[in-house]
Amino acid sequence: MPQWGGGPKCGICDRTVYAQEKIEAGNVSFHQNCFKCSVCNMKLSRQNYAQADTVLFCKKHYQSNVVAQNAQIVS
């Protein structure tokens, strides 16, 4: 069976991302609907997101989950 959609794959769902639905952040392509906070599901933009490894966060949840956790590890 042929593979359709030879474009870039979404960093979240791994399906093909077409130009009209593409958001690129950190050299990774995402569908607009997949580009949301992993904690609260708020839709993100390139101006209000943060990323830890491959996990996306809004700024609030990045601060409370990633930065706070890293501060505890260092302490």
Could you describe the 3D structure shown?
This protein is an alpha+beta fold. The chain has a single domain (19-74), classed as Cysteine Rich Protein (Ribbon), CATH 2.10.110. It contains 1 helix and 4 strands; from the N terminus they run E-E-E-E-H. The chain has one helix at 59-74, and strands spanning 22-25, 28-31, 49-52, 55-58. A two-stranded antiparallel sheet has the order 1-2. It has a two-stranded antiparallel sheet with strand order 3-4. A hairpin with a 2-residue loop joins strand 3 (49-52) and strand 4 (55-58). The longest helix is centred in the last third of the chain and has 16 residues, at 59-74. The model has no long low-confidence stretch (mean pLDDT 83). This is LIM zinc-binding domain-containing protein. InterPro entries: Znf_LIM (IPR001781). Keywords: LIM domain, Metal-binding, Repeat, Zinc.
What is the strand and helix layout of this fold?
Layout: E1 22-25, E2 28-31, E3 49-52, E4 55-58, H1 59-74
Antiparallel strand pairs: 1-2, 3-4
How would you describe this structure in keywords?
75 residues; alpha+beta; Cysteine Rich Protein; two-stranded antiparallel ribbon; 1 helix; 21% helix; 21% strand; repeat
